[in-house]
Amino acid sequence: MPIPSRLPAAAGVGFKPQHFADIIGGEQPIGFVEIHAENYMGAGGPPHAQLGALRERYALSVHGVGLSIGGAAALDAEHLARLKLLCDRYQPDSFSEHLAWSSHGEVFYNDLLPLPYTPETLARIVEHIDLVQTTLGREMLLENPSTYVTFVDSTFPETEFLAEIARRSGCGLLLDVNNVFVSAKNHGTDPTSYLAAFPMARVKEIHLGGHDEQTDDDGAPLLIDAHGSPVADPVWALYENAIARSGPLATLIEWDNNVPAWPVLAREARAASDILSRAAAAKAA
Amino acid sequence: MTKNSIAAATLAGSLAAAFTMISIASSAPAPAQPNADKCYGVSLAGKNDCAAGPGTTCAGTSKVDYQGNAWKYVAKGTCATMKTPKGMGSLKAM
Amino acid sequence: MTAAFSAIQASFADALLDADRPVPGALTLQAAGAPRKRFAVYRNNVIVGLVEALRAQFPATEKIVGGEFFAAMARVYAVTQPPRSPILLHHGNGFPGFIEQFEPAAELPYLADVARLEIARTRAYHAADAPTLDPSRWEGLDPAALVGARVTLHPSLQILRSLYPVVTIWAMNAGDAEPSSIEDSGPEDALIVRPDLDVQVRRLPAGGAAFLHALAAGASLGDAATSAIADHPEFDLTANLAGLIGAGLATELHCTPTPKDIAP
Predict the structure, then answer these.
(1) Cα–Cα distance for residue pair A191/A234, rounded to 1 Å
(2) Distance (Å, whole) CA A152 – CA C196
(3) The domain C127-262: what is its CATH number?
(4) How far apart are CA A149 and CA C262, in angstroms?
(5) SS3 of A243, please?
(6) Where are the domains of chain C?
(7) Is pLDDT at C156 greater than 80 in this prediction?
(8) Scanning every residue of chain C, which has its alpha carbon at the shortest distance from the alpha carbon of A49?
(9) Are A266 and A29 in contact (CB under 8 A)?
(10) CB of A277 within 8 Å of any CB in chain B?
(11) Which of A94, A169, C129, C228 could be stapled to A61 by a disulfide with Cβ–Cβ 3.0 to 4.6 Å?
């Protein structure tokens, strides 16, 4: 029986080394930190020194960005072994990855790439998740992606695809509300309907982040999941609605590009924390 | 030991002298490293993880790759202003 | 069935790194118009992401050639030698060799060595930790034992021997300092080490690289000193021992038993 994901229902931040002194230096409005697994696969040095210190004070989420769960090929056994080493070393409260692929052939493309949602790809992903959960001995959370294109071959809506993966593999889900908004706007669909159809009972963590607004060749909106700005107002609104339905859940602020000074990121975390408190109060009432 | 090898007494003498050198310099960085330069001692645009190198991201980017043709570019960084006796700091074209 | 999935990914993957290839036909779009810009988001993410990762690892190299040139050079590298591992810090390993063959950079013969120094810094940053040897361990050693003694060097320690003044050029471009004249354009050997949490870059004195290389290969102190003198007649044993001990380059000292130790 894999160890279940057990992050606290609090706000968290994606950890950046430049914020280390601030995060360790005083009381912060966060209950957990999240790291990208692939940045902690060296043998030692400051990354591990910092992670060890963070682990003593906060709950920890390990978020993989390179396993290529949605790849047609078999998972990279060496990479899976490295993930196991990291999880064994730090005993994180959660491990998550993406409904996406990033490797094909011998090449790692360093992006979260989309796939068709078909019975065939479903079966492949369930196999991969089984292997991850068996190897790590932990429940895995699977995150919904931001997409810019869809596939003619797809036979499942994304929400149904994720629900079926979770049902068959027993994995949990990571709901990225910004990704919901970005994909919906890019494909001309309704983010509220998407959230209404999302299997919230499986969700163990939420991601929030900023996006960039552009337009495509036809002048239609093209949103980029850039994580380089504050969380947008409509995303906050969607988040508040989702939380009102599910009750408080661990909520991460992601800010990966144009990383701001700590107080700016802490302010975003506090805003999430306030929404979580309101949801908890409403639930208690 | 061959006759070219260093004598034990020489080595022991050097070690003693080395300790004297270290104790004299104990409040300063170790001697014999004139260009001692520590990561944190160099200001690298506000980064304190200056040696960390590349990090991953799970985000897209709003920066645009202009697909510039490297062959058309001329290096225009400090190489244009660094002066070396053999002229290897700057480009011939400059 | 898996062949179909694999084929879709193959055509997607091929079009990511080659903008001349058509957008994969298996894609559909909400708007009927051209899919180029939407697919281009992925192309852009991949290329910009890889170029930015190289930029983060090679800041001095970038400063020397300028941002525009660096981005163009890094782009060619990323497309022709894309990463094979999801751990991006390894992707830069082939960059110095690429720079050496990169025609537009041919007039900067030292550039590849500056990039090598920056790789050594990344490696040192992520290398295994090890406590440095307490200097008191060197005290009271019998001269004969000292000649036969061996050391274990710190796991982060790396040596870069260059035909160019690589440390001087790197130091001039690593901070905010304005580049100035380089008086001595002779070769320099760099020592890159991280005894605690800070990566240090030092210029090795004459023969220092040969001395440390010999020690790293398991030579005794006496033999390492002999090799260093052979490498460079101006090798200063005292200064190099002071560096070895004072800079915390060793983690272990192994002394072979001397006759005095064995005697009852």
Answers:
(1) 10
(2) 55
(3) 3.90.930
(4) 77
(5) helix
(6) 2-108, 127-262
(7) yes
(8) C197
(9) yes
(10) no
(11) A94
Provide the token pair at A240. 């508040």
Task: Report the distance separating Cα A33 and Cα A94, nearest Å.
Answer: 11
Checking if the pLDDT of B57 tops 90, the result is no
Query: Reduced to 3 states, what is the DSSP secondary structure of residue C82?
Result: coil
CB contact under 8 A, C65 and B15: no
* ipTM for this prediction: 0.95
Check residue A26 and report its DSSP letter: S
Q: How far is C1 from chain B (nearest CA, A)?
A: 29
What b/e readout covers C117-150, taking b as 16+ CB neighbours within 10 angstroms? bbbbbbbbbbbebbebbebeebeebbbbbbbbbb
**Average pLDDT estimate for A272-280:** 96
For C:20-39, CB contacts with B below 8 A are none
State whether A254 and B60 contact (CB < 8 Å).
no
Q: What percent of chain B has pLDDT over 90?
A: 2
CATH of domain A11-284: 3.20.20.150
Closest to C143 (Cβ–Cβ): which among B1, B5, B12?
B12
CB–CB of B31 and C56 under 8 A? no
Give how far A257 is from chain C: nearest CA, Å: 11
B21 or A48, which is more confident? A48
Could you tell me which of A16, A136, A152, A6 has the C-alpha nearest to residue A69?
A136
Could you tell me the two tokens for B13? 């003498």
Q: Which of C26, C34, C45 sits opposite A111 (nearest CB)?
A: C45
Residue contact A224–B61, C-beta within 8 A: yes
**DSSP secondary structure code for residue C86 in this structure:** S
Whole-number Å distance between alpha carbons of A86 and C236:
44
What is the model's pLDDT at position B88? 53
Q: pLDDT of A196-232, one tens digit each? A: 999 999 999 999 999 999 988 788 889 999 999 999 9
Per cent of chain C over pLDDT 90 is 72
